[in-house]
């Protein structure tokens, strides 16, 4: 559940839409066509709900509120305002979009559980409001509201083939819009938000805004579905838009498979075939069977129908690979192999420490490679200055008056025992953690500025757990980090105007540049991030942070949990970053690694700076050795 | 220090079935081999250290013993009997585990925290309450306080108290020195070593602080590349951290 | 004024029922990690069982007794068959409870006939007494008493029993609790057993007031969510305070403004609380690690 957010569903979607378009040729019965019409109407809303749930990680158990708004607004402006039908539908969709955006911005602050409860609640409140007397002038209260028939020439859109294809067009439209959304910057940013909000924010993504956008899109599509529902039923009553329907819609998405766009359509067809196929026995026993199926699917087949079909097709065609995670081991082996045979020029740089590590005993390698010969010309004022940084965690002093200066173009390492406050210090610099004291970058006081502004001024960072989007390729993941800003209109992006295309191109160029600079093997660029080894993921995380062309790059334990070869690759990557003129502040535990890459080094212990200096000096300091390997009783 | 030396010279061979025995342990996380053929033993009354760099897999080793991490291969035995795979069953078999970050229940009182150490029913006369109260007098004084209010050092005492009160056969301690001042650490480790020896409890201490381990443990293992080797030269810091 | 006071009193009684359902939600949330959307319908289904027994000639009290035993079994079955197998992540489990919500409503419709709603006989005496011109209904007073007894029972369990201490431990640090030998799954089973019984109690107290039908629990479930959020989703005691606030306010809104805004007022209180105190009145902040 919620784990996947697939990218390549265009062909399956097109196939399914074509099948549905051709279905009336085979399915001749009026009632059978009626079932498909209902299924497609729900599918319109379900696709939007999938965007919300599968692609942006939010829940909604109240999507029928927007169905209702679309339907009622459309019907009411036609009855009361005598609007023609097309503007009425547009008004309905616009109203549901607007309300979804407003309500969405109220709920996005809640965690997924809170938004589930909130939307569930809203669904119930909406029914009360529709059936109550307060809005009865518009809604007809509990008496309901007749929908004026819609005709083109002599053909009524409310019956037969005309209804079928009107609804089909609505479905095709919503699939197209939702698919497009998942491909543009906004959709990809939303997927990072789903993965990890803090990481997204540090990449410059406007978390709040992207979540509301997904809400608005889901609301718009649901409003369209509501209009279709109005056409089909011809008469609106509050019972049509209850919380049961909202929950059923969610169940449809879950059964069909979240994060696939196509799955929810399958789910809707499945639901209505089942409910109506059994309607001859009893309406409620078909409901019972459906809820039983939902439960079985959710308990046993987490990925839903789409996942089952995908696996089935793959087995049939004998395809292997390309499923994220399933073949991780192979990918890992392949990744190692490829890391070793890179282009000849780069190979020397990569292979040298590796072969060194293999040939000689571990103890001598890094001692034999001191950084003394490194040109350490530091001209001009320092890039980063921290003064008196302090953080309290409920009475525990995590950081205590930390002063730190990082010179322009240097690689500065922070070392110290667990719990010394190293990650907290990076959080203070990138603005995630409020703190006392001053943060100055390039003579620019950032102390009171939020995360997004600090990124715009040139601070970028990686995390201990990279939080890449598993269903996006390496290049796509890096692109998300490469946008100068994440501002701008999602509608324009989806329209693909020259301005936004240019912007996408710039981001792509920057991403390519970052990957090239870090010498990440080109044949791995189109691999899904879910198939990468931990070492590669850390590598991509650095590329993603570097792609924003920062002045200062903060790296949080890029070597933790990696093997010796992978550590070598990360060290190479950092040297690439330094060559590009970017200043690096890196937390590390592996002293050999620090010795190899760092110009300067600061030791933190108990939230204080113990000592600071060149890497050679600091690592030779007895006191530091004490802190690092133990300040027990002197023997 | 002289007592330490005495115990060190005792032969550990010949008691292969008693105590904790890990043989060829393997642990994988999504394909990656985090622990790859690790073997070590902790005899009753022995205090053993496990050192290694951050991310080397020290915590994972302890979690694999107590069942919090799935073991993908190898055997873990206590007194010659295979340990079960579920944490609660491992605990009831006599393995106490002070987890990373100490696992103190902040909203409960110190006394309630300690009582949770007796979830595994132990006859009253077998509990170590008396001995522990002597070793950690501060804990007795703090009995009624909310554990969340305590300092890091006090919480560590409570965690050790809770781990030992049920007289386990083996005690696993993760990141013993985390957040402790050198002085508090010294008090804690000395008390731990003494209690373990007095009551025949095998103790396995995981820490980055290799000097502390070398000074207080009967043996120290160094973890690297997913396996361990005996690390007998305390001065040989380079091979552990500076490779 | 007399009307207002008696509205407030019945609001408190109803609020305590809300609080009790909210208590179950939070109790399950703390012990099993997921708030169960289906708790209301669990109570509904169990009340139907009692109703069927009574309709087939059993006395009301014996039927309630048998129903209580069934509820305990029912709770255990739900945990063992629906929630435990292939233990999913939080989102998956949440969806499982939603599916269970649908399933129980459908089961009630299929098994207990299409003539719903039914009148359900009251276990409590009807009528009331006037105190200073204010009508106090016996059923309300007894409801208050029952809830107080249950709360006292739970407080005593948490404070003085081994079982209660283990519940608190699992709620705070499930992993550490297991390291100490706490059998977490057994506790979850017991928690569902208790939840099943409490849910029946709510159903039995509610059904005489508002008829018995498959959707009867939906409003109170929503109120309970609101109460839990107002009380702070991590606070067991806070749920009752939240319940009383929601109960009284919604009762006043229903009487003086109109029933179509009852739910809306509860939603408004919930959102207002979240805006002012994101962790509710008594909740504690959850620390998130990167």
In short:
By secondary structure, chain A is α/β, with parallel strands linked by helices. Chain A folds into two domains: 10-241, no CATH class; 384-629, P-loop containing nucleotide triphosphate hydrolases (Rossmann fold, 3-Layer(aba) Sandwich). Chain A has 27 helices and 14 strands.
Walk me through what this model shows.
The complex is a heterotrimer of chains A (635), B (243) and C (290). Chain A is 58% helix and 11% strand. With 635 residues, chain A is of the alpha/beta class. The radius of gyration of chain A is 29 Å and the shape is elongated. Chain B starts with a helix and ends with a helix. Chain B is 34% helix and 23% strand. The radius of gyration of chain B is 17 Å and the shape is globular. In chain B, the strands form two sheets. Chain B has a six-stranded mixed β-sheet with strand order 6-7-8-3-9-10, sandwiched between helices. Chain B has a four-stranded antiparallel β-sheet with strand order 2-1-4-5, with helices on one face. Chain B has helices at 2-9, 58-66, 87-92, 110-115, 129-135, 137-141, 152-165, 182-198, 210-216, 238-241, and strands at residues 20-29, 32-42, 47-51, 73-78, 81-82, 95-98, 170-173, 202-206, 219-224, 227-230. Chain B has ten helices and ten strands. Chain B is an alpha/beta fold. The longest helix of chain B has 17 residues, at 182-198. Chain B has a domain at 18-100 and 168-241: Rossmann fold (3-Layer(aba) Sandwich). Chain C is mostly helical and 290 residues long. Chain C has a single domain (2-276), classed as ABC transporter involved in vitamin B12 uptake, BtuC (Orthogonal Bundle). Chain C is built from eleven helices and two strands. Chain C has a two-stranded antiparallel ribbon. The radius of gyration of chain C is 19 Å and the shape is globular. Mean pLDDT of chain C is 88; it is low at 286-290. Chains A and C meet through helix 5, helix 11 and helix 13 of A and helix 4, helix 9 and helix 11 of C. Chain A: This is Branched-chain amino acid ABC transporter ATP-binding protein/permease.
């Amino acid at each position: 559940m919620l784990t996947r957010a697939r990218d390549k569903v265009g062909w399956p979607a097109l196939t399914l839409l074509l099948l549905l378009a051709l279905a009336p040729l085979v399915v001749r019965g009026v009632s059978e066509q009626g079932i498909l019409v209902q299924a497609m109407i729900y599918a319109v809303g379900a696709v939007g709900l999938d965007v919300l749930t599968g692609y942006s990680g939010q829940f909604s158990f109240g999507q029928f509120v927007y169905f209702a708004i679309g339907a009622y607004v459309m019907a009411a402006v036609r009855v009361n305002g005598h609007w023609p039908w097309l503007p009425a539908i547009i008004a309905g969709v616009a109203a549901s979009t607007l309300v979804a955006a407003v309500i969405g911005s109220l709920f996005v602050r809640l965690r997924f559980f809170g938004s589930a409860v909130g939307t569930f609640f809203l669904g119930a409140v909406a029914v009360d409001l529709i059936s109550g007397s307060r809005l009865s002038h518009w809604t007809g209260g509990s008496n309901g509201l007749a929908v004026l028939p819609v005709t083109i020439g002599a053909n009524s859109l409310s019956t037969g083939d005309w209804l079928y294809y009107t609804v089909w067009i609505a479905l095709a439209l919503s699939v197209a819009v939702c698919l497009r959304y998942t491909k543009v910057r906004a959709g990809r940013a939303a997927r990072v938000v789903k993965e990890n909000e803090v990481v997204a924010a540090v990449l410059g993504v406007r978390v709040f805004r992207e979540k509301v956008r997904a809400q608005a899109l889901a609301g718009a599509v649901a409003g369209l579905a509501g209009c279709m529902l109005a056409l089909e039923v011809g008469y609106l009553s509050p019972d049509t838009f209850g919380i049961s329907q909202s929950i059923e819609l969610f169940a449809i998405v879950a059964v069909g498979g979240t994060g696939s766009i196509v799955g929810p359509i399958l789910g809707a067809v499945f639901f209505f075939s089942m409910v109506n196929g059994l309607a001859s026995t009893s309406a409620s026993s078909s409901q019972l069977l459906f809820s039983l199926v939902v439960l079985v699917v959710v308990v046993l087949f987490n990925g839903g129908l789409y996942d089952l079909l995908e696996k089935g097709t793959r087995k049939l065609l004998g395809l292997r690979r390309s499923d994220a995670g399933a073949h991780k081991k192979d990918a890992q082996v392949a990744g190692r192999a490829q890391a070793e045979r890179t282009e000849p020029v780069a190979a020397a740089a990569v292979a040298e420490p590796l072969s060194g590590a293999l040939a000689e005993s571990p103890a001598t390698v890094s001692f034999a490679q001191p950084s003394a010969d490194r040109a350490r010309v530091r001209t001009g004022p320092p890039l980063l200055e921290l003064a008196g940084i302090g953080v309290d965690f409920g009475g525990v002093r995590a950081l205590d008056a930390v002063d730190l200066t990082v010179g322009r173009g240097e690689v500065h390492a922070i070392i110290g025992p667990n719990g010394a406050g190293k990650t907290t210090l990076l959080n203070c610099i990138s603005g995630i953690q409020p703190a006392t004291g001053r943060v100055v970058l390039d003579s620019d006081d950032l102390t009171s500025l939020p995360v997004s502004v600090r990124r715009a001024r040139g601070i970028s960072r990686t995390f201990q757990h990279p939080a890449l989007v598993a269903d996006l390729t390496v290049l796509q993941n890096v692109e998300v980090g490469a946008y100068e800003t994440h501002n701008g209109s999602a509608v324009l992006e989806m329209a693909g105007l020259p301005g936004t295309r240019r912007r996408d191109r710039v981001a792509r160029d920057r991403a390519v540049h970052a990957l090239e600079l870090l010498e990440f093997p080109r044949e791995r660029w189109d691999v899904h991030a879910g198939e990468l080894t931990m070492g590669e993921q850390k590598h991509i995380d650095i590329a993603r942070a570097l792609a924003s062309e920062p002045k200062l790059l903060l790296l949080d334990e890029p070597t933790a949990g990696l093997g010796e070869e992978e550590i070598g690759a990360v060290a190479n990557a950092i040297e690439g970053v330094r060559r590009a003129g970017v200043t690096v502040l890196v937390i590390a535990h592996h002293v050999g690694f620090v010795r190899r890459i760092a110009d300067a080094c600061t030791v933190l212990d108990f939230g204080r700076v113990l000592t600071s200096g060149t890497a050679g000096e600091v690592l030779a300091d007895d006191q530091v050795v004490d802190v690092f390997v133990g300040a027990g009783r002197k023997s | 220090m002289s007592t330490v030396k005495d115990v060190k010279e005792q032969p550990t061979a010949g008691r292969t079935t008693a105590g904790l025995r890990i043989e060829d342990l393997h642990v994988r996380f999504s394909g990656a081999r985090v622990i790859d053929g690790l073997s070590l033993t902790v005899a009753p009354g022995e205090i053993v250290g496990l050192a290694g760099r951050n991310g080397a897999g020290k915590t994972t080793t302890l979690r694999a013993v107590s069942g919090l991490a799935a073991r993908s291969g190898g055997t873990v035995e206590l007194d010659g009997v295979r340990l079960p795979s579920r944490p609660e069953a491992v605990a009831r078999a006599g393995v106490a585990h002070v987890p990373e970050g100490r696992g103190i229940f902040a909203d409960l009182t110190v006394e309630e925290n300690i009582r949770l150490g007796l979830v595994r029913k132990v006859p009253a006369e077998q509990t170590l309450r008396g001995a522990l109260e002597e070793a950690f007098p501060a804990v007795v004084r703090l009995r009624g306080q909310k554990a969340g209010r305590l300092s890091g050092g006090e919480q560590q005492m409570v965690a050790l108290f809770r781990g030992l009160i049920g007289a386990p056969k083996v005690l696993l301690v993760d990141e013993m020195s985390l957040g402790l001042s050198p002085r508090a650490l010294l008090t804690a480790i000395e008390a731990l070593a003494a209690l373990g020896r007095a009551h025949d409890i095998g103790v396995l201490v995981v820490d980055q602080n290799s000097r502390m381990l070398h000074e207080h443990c009967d043996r120290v293992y160094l973890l690297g590349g997913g396996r361990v080797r005996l690390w007998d030269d305390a001065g040989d810091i380079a091979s552990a951290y500076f490779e | 004024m007399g009307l207002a006071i008696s509205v407030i009193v019945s609001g408190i009684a109803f609020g305590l029922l809300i609080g009790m359902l909210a208590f179950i939600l939070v109790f399950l949330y703390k012990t099993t990690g997921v708030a169960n959307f289906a708790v209301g319908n669990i109570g509904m289904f169990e009340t139907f069982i009692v109703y069927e027994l009574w309709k087939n000639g059993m006395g009301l009290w014996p039927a309630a007794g048998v129903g209580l035993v069934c509820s305990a079994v029912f709770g255990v079955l739900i945990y063992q068959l629906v929630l435990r197998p292939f233990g999913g992540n939080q989102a998956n489990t949440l969806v499982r409870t939603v599916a269970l919500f649908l399933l129980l409503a459908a089961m009630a419709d299929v098994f207990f006939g299409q003539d719903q709603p039914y009148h359900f006989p009251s276990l409590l005496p009807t009528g009331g007494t006037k105190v200073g011109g204010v009508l106090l209904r016996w059923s309300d007073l007894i409801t208050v008493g029952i809830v107080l007894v249950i709360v006292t029972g739970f407080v005593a369990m948490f404070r003085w029993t081994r079982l209660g201490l283990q519940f608190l431990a699992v709620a705070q640090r499930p992993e550490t609790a297991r390291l100490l030998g706490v059998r977490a799954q057994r506790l979850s089973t017991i928690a569902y057993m208790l939840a099943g019984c409490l849910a029946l109690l709510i159903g039995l107290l509610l059904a005489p007031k508002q008829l018995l039908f498959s959707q009867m629990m939906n409003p109170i479930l929503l109120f309970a969510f609101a109460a839990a959020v107002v009380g702070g989703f991590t606070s067991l005691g806070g749920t009752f305070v939240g319940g009383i606030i929601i109960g009284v306010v919604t009762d006043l809104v229903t009487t003086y403004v109109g029933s179509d805004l009852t739910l809306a007022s509860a939603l408004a209180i919930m959102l207002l609380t979240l805006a002012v105190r994101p962790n509710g009145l008594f909740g504690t902040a959850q620390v998130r690690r990167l």
